[in-house]
Amino acid sequence: xxxxxxxxxxxxxxxxxxxxxxxxxxxxxxxxxxxxxxxxxxxxxxxxxxxxxxxxxxxxxxxxxxxxxxxxxxxxxxxxxxxxxxxxxxxxxxxxxxxxxxxxxxxxxxxxxxxxxxxxxxxxxxxxxxxxxxxxxxxxxxxxxxxxxxxxxxxxxxxxxxxxxxxxxxxxx
Length: 173
What we know:
It is a single chain. This protein is an alpha+beta fold. Helices cover 27% and strands 34% of the residues. It has helices spanning 11-24, 36-44, 98-111, 127-135, and strands spanning 2-5, 53-58, 64-72, 82-89, 117-124, 139-150, 153-163. It has a seven-stranded mixed sheet, sandwiched between helices. Strand 6 and strand 7 (153-163) form a beta hairpin. The longest helix has 14 residues, at 11-24.
């Protein structure tokens, strides 16, 4: 698998992966799939220095197996060194280490940015996602109980955080 920065030609596949999660699970609280323009804006907002990234894992034919994204945690400027992260893998590629590889690369890239902290929230229960986060150095922060309602039932969201290694001033980016 090759992991690269997302390009415009990857956006339809990213959208399909996310849309399947939107309509088929509570892993995201979007109730309707966003239009392709949402992903176009996500790609336009990539800022490697700030830690706002969109990367994809590609198979040997160049097909998108999954993607990871990081971006602003909150709008207020004091939060600008904190990034919220997410990872989604195509259903047919799950259980093969794709998510771990892509998310690991995202963390590596974030460690080279000016971001100081990565945070990720997941709908609970999700033991696979919790194990992935913990294996990559995230620690449990806490759980909001019943914070979102999807498919007619309330869902909890558990939050994790991970400090990011800051490069020394003399280190190359």
